[in-house]
Amino acid sequence: MSASLLSLKGVHTHIGAYHILHGVDLEVPQGQLTMLLGRNGAGKTTTLRTIMRLWQASQGQVLFNGQSMARLGTPDIAQLGIAYVPENMGIFADLTVRENLLLAARKARSVDELDTQRLEWLFGLFPALKKFWLYPAGKLSGGQKQMLAISRAMIEPRRLLLIDEPSKGLAPAIVRNLIEALNELKRSETTVLLVEQNFAVAKALGDRVAVMDDGRVVHAGAMAELAEDEGLQQKLLGLSLGAHQ
Q: pTM (2 decimals)?
């Protein structure tokens, strides 16, 4: 297995009076796509938000490239080359597709300063972005908004992408397009930590997998091994991938 770009060691997170993460241990190998699976309420989104320090760990370590991020704020973490695509997508509905992407490109002050080659690469992954370039983002379909949210995270090269349930609520045809785009992203050797409830998506994309339950990682290994073991799927997730093809 590749060296870990991101490591969580014994991470606990409290939100108010609630103890959500109970000692999370997680390794995200560099250049691979790691799936973070688990039942609703297992702590997956809290894990992503804790990594970005949107919520602060009360105990444990979050290490990026071997260095602690404990003293960093969320903007500092973004400066390290880490991008976060939340479940609610976080796009600016009143701004155009172009304006949303420009805001995410920290090194560009105008559209003319955007990396043309990278922009064309994104258009190749998500052709709808080019079609609706001057369209208000709030008027896009759910699938198009998700494509925009992911593209904002990818408008500049990132070392690590954290993506929360990108296929949620999307039509099957759009999900297939999303899988193709994320596979292309994998070929660029970008490291990805992906929370997902669609197990067909997990099987198609994952190199590694970590399964959470009750605020802990209860299983970690190769995604292919979990995909082939219906008994383990039933034990960890309460259902089998085979039933969700």
A: 0.90
